[in-house]
Amino acid sequence: MMGAAYTSVLIESSPVTSTVTKHLIAVALRGGITFAIMGGIAAMLYATGKPNDGWHTLMAGAVAGVVMGASVLYEVKEWSLLKQTVIHALLMLVVLYPIVLISGWWPTETWGQRLFILIPFYGIGAVLWGVFFIIFNERSPLRRRRTDS
User: Fold this and answer.
1) What percent of the chain has pLDDT over 90?
2) Whether pTM exceeds 0.85
3) CA 21 to CA 90: how far, in whole Å?
């Protein structure tokens, strides 16, 4: 995650001292920059007569921005991994799930269809959580190999 490393360096070199403020700045930078870039691409697609592509790009940007911003939760050192994970899962349900519902990527005419979306929503989330846990866990052999070099 090059963006995470860049924002961490940018924030650490800042004169801001509050941990909460540093985390909020990281959320704004990671999520905001991601969404702004995708929003710009969406605007260009709208302007060139491709409103459907523009809408889907905007929705993808919203998803990416939320996920990037939420990654800061895993940097709150005072919280256990369980607390970070539960808060992240709830945040995804409250913020990301509505974005997925209005995106048009899934049929949402019935409550059953809306509830069905939660299966791949949390299934994909669990797989990604596991992959990132393996990659970024301090005890992971993958991480040790990268830091030993």
Assistant:
1) 50
2) no
3) 22
